[in-house]
Automatic annotation (TrEMBL):
Name of the protein: DUF4340 domain-containing protein
Top-rank lineage group of the source organism: Bacteria
Transmembrane regions: 7-26
Keywords carried by this UniProt record: Membrane, Transmembrane, Transmembrane helix
């Protein structure tokens, strides 16, 4: 059986595509991404935070400083420098990735929501505790992070953790 010139072109094109997919798969197996293990930042470096919300509190960017809005029963107060340090701590934090501890969403101790300049919807992080260990769940990326009690207290400063 003889193939025409057009048919041979199609054979060459399809064989090149198969070879590209094959080589790309080998590349992915030989060089796995670092996201699977180790620590990872909570935000991309270029993320620009417009507001941060905790239950009962909202921290908003006003020009180059920050303003705290709180519910009537809220007791935590902080000057703009402390608010700036809190937002910076969130932006610069790198936490260890971990496997899912299997906690239900209803067991969350608190939640932090970030409104970023680059997205319409807020980015949400939920804090959990299980057997004296703290976990942070990033809802958008579906990743679990482990953190110490000190880190949890620093990131969730307005909320009293026991």
């Amino acid at each position: 059986m003889r193939l025409s010139r057009k048919a041979w072109n199609n054979v060459v094109i399809f064989s090149m595509l198969i070879m590209i997919f094959f080589l790309n798969g080998i590349h992915q197996k030989m060089n796995p991404s670092n996201e699977e293990t180790g620590s990872m930042p909570l935000f991309e470096q270029q993320s620009f935070v417009l507001a941060l919300g905790f239950p009962g509190y909202k921290i908003e960017r006003i020009g180059t400083s920050w303003r705290l809005s709180a519910d009537a029963e809220a007791t935590w107060q902080a000057p703009p420098a402390t608010l700036d340090a809190l937002v910076t701590r969130w932006q610069e934090s790198e936490l260890a990735l971990t496997d899912s501890p299997g906690l239900p969403a209803s067991a969350a101790l608190s939640v932090a929501q970030f409104w970023l300049a680059s997205s319409e919807l807020p980015v949400s992080y939920q804090l959990y505790r299980q057997q004296q260990r703290y976990y942070l769940f990033a809802r958008q990326s579906q990743r679990w992070f482990s953190l110490s009690k000190t880190q949890a207290q620093q990131l969730f400063a307005p909320i009293e953790l026991k």
